[in-house]
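Project outcomes to date are best conveyed with an example. Our students and postdoctoral researchers have been running inverse folding experiments weekly, and each run begins with a structure described purely in tokens. The record below, which covers 258 residues, was selected by the lab manager from last quarter's runs and is presented without edits.
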């Protein structure tokens, strides 16, 4: 009867890739003390020898699938449309003083700003996305990360020629340097801005010929992880069909690194 009870357990172990149980060793044998438990190679996931993705990875996969399903995948930034919950904000153009509207607020608009979007689907969350089309002017031999920091980061003026790139990586919560299938260089970083009001800043830079696309997403004070990853996939990845960093994540609960 005892052997009949063990048969189902033994069958399950063999199906999962484990070796059948070995006979117990004599505790007095020399090799007995050297024996270590080795976990079976399979059975970590339901019905599979490969563990299922964790919560964050599963969320990244859903965000990537949603971005690919839009009509804007690989169509370029000029064709970028706002996702649900966002609306396009008109970008003011330079006008003659005499032609300006009397009610128009005098706000300086960066010359390279080509489009802007704002999130209006939540009472307590503010999200502004700006897309810049800078002229690609990275000095030869300089990394895109270094060029982006020196040209567009608030602390860029503190970077000296003697400083190695690694010396200012800790200004950010995360930094990724990538190449897409077409060889375009990409840099993406994120950090919590220093100031009275909490704000998270997510930025991506993509070199495309004579263009340096710069996408800036500011989130105040924070947003759910699933929303953040979906927005980054839409604004950062979809226009140029680019890859996402493997460690892309939100910054909820993080403090400023600056």
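After processing, the design step wrote out the following sequence:
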């Amino acid at each position: 009867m005892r052997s009949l009870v063990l048969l189902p357990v033994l069958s399950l172990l063999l199906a999962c890739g484990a070796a059948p149980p070995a006979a117990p060793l004599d505790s007095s044998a020399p090799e007995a003390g050297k024996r270590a438990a080795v976990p079976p190679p399979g059975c970590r996931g339901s019905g599979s020898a490969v563990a299922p993705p964790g919560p964050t990875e599963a969320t990244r996969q859903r965000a990537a699938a949603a971005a690919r399903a839009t009509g804007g995948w690989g169509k370029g930034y000029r064709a970028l449309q706002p996702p649900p919950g966002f609306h396009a904000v008109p970008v003011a153009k330079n006008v003659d003083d005499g032609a300006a509207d009397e009610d128009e607020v005098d706000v300086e608009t960066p010359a390279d700003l080509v489009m802007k979007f704002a999130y209006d689907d939540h009472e307590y969350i503010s999200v502004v996305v700006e897309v810049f089309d800078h002229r690609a002017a990275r000095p030869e031999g300089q990394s895109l990360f270094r060029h982006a920091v020196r040209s567009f980061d608030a602390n860029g003026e503190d970077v000296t020629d003697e400083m190695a790139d690694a010396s200012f990586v800790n200004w950010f919560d995360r930094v990724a340097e990538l190449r897409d299938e077409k060889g375009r260089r990409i840099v993406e970083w994120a950090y919590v801005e220093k100031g009275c009001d909490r704000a998270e800043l997510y930025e991506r830079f993509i070199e495309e010929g004579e263009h340096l696309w710069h996408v800036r997403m500011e989130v105040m004070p924070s947003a759910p992880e699933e929303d953040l990853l979906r927005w980054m996939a839409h604004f950062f990845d979809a226009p140029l069909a680019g890859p996402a960093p493997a460690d892309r994540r939100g910054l909820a609960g993080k403090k400023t690194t600056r």
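Residues 2-15 form the longest helix (14 residues). Strands lie at 86-88, 113-119, 126-135, 174-179, 185-192, 200-208, 211-220. The training component of this project remains on track.
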